[in-house]
Amino acid sequence: MLGIPGPPTPPYTITGKLERAPGLWKFVQSKWRVGESDLTGEVTIDERQKPEFLTARLVSQKLVFEDLAPLVGAAPTRKTNVSAKQAQTQQQLEASGDLFPNVPLNIEKLRAMNMDVTLDAKKVIAPPWLPVQAMDFRVVILNGVATVKPLTMSVFGGGTIQGELIMDARTDTPKVRANLRAGEIELKNFFRESRYFDATQGKIQGHLALAGTGRSLAQVMGTANGHVALALGGGSISSLMVSLGGLQIFDALVLYVTGDNRIPIKCAMGRLNFQNGTVTFDRTLLDTQKSVLYVQGHASLQSQAVKAEVDARRKGFDLLDLHGTVRIEGKLRNPQVGLGRVFPLPTPVIGTAKDVACADLTQQLLAAP
């Protein structure tokens, strides 16, 4: 109605006071309800500048992460407040097994108006696999280039994710760049509302530096270059995650399980290198009491498929060596896990693997460009 470029949203209601002065619109005392999220604040549109300039200072007492899903073409998983187009997108993703939606983004809106918008979300309601509890950011759009900086997300347990996002939409094929760092994030919070929560412990550090091009999230990830690095200095994971693959896989990985279904972890780390949408596992390992697990392989973000192997190297004496690897293949959304060729040898095996120098390797992994 006012010609303001904005993102697609779930159903919304807005109340407030609209003020008009020569060349200036002000929307004050505003209250917004977007999907299940709320916003309050002040919006100003200055028509005297060319292009027009929008300034907004917004606060949310409750921000439901799924209400941001339309920004990347995704659909909320909830059953209410979902448009027919969003529901169709979700059905297509589930049917194809794809991880990223290929819904074109309306980038032309970024060129229509310059903006300076801040949002302080006091409470974030996120999916169980994303342990964000609050966030604040500033979005500045100048001549088709959108910069989200600073971006800060507070995580359950005291951890944070900080960094910046940039989208250059001056051309028809936008360029997207992200640089984020994560620190002191409790691993178990990624498994909220699951049976793995109680047996999972440890704190994660990480760094994400990715750049890609495209008009949809699937296209951007399918052309991405850069890396994602993660490290866990110690803790435990639930043995139930591994047991889903069957007893043979459990034996092949040579894992020690405590009485409360924990697998003690001395160290874990991994680096995913992205090159034109192809992801390669680099220095990806899990150091446990009885063995060191090494992951090798690759994934394609164009076909959204993965093919990887996990090889266990024993640290000590064992009566049986399965001489096999665990294979992970299929769509990223739902891969299959199974054993490669296995040759049981009924002879004692003396393992030679050593503990990983966790602190030094973690420093190298997260410091690398």
Account of the 3D structure:
- The protein contains six helices and 22 strands.
- The chain has helices spanning 84-96, 109-112, 217-222, 239-243, 247-253, 358-367; strands at 12-21, 24-34, 37-46, 53-60, 63-64, 114-121, 124-125, 132-142, 145-155, 160-168, 175-186, 203-213, 225-232, 235-238, 262-275, 278-288, 291-300, 305-314, 317-318, 326-331, 336-339, 349-350.
- The strands form three sheets. It has an 18-stranded mixed β-sheet that branches. A two-stranded parallel sheet has the order 5-7.
- It starts with 11 loop residues before the first strand and ends with a helix.
- 30% of the residues are buried.
What descriptive keywords fit this protein?
369 residues, mainly beta, two-stranded parallel ribbon, 6 helices, 12% helix
Write the SSE topology.
Layout: E1 12-21, E2 24-34, E3 37-46, E4 53-60, E5 63-64, H1 84-96, H2 109-112, E6 114-121, E7 124-125, E8 132-142, E9 145-155, E10 160-168, E11 175-186, E12 203-213, H3 217-222, E13 225-232, E14 235-238, H4 239-243, H5 247-253, E15 262-275, E16 278-288, E17 291-300, E18 305-314, E19 317-318, E20 326-331, E21 336-339, E22 349-350, H6 358-367
Parallel strand pairs: 4-6, 5-7
Antiparallel strand pairs: 1-2, 2-3, 3-4, 6-8, 8-9, 9-10, 10-11, 11-12, 12-13, 13-15, 14-15, 15-16, 16-17, 17-18, 18-20, 19-22, 20-21
The rough form would be described as elongated
Low-confidence stretches: none
Task: Summarize model confidence as the mean pLDDT.
Answer: 85
Radius of gyration: 24 Å
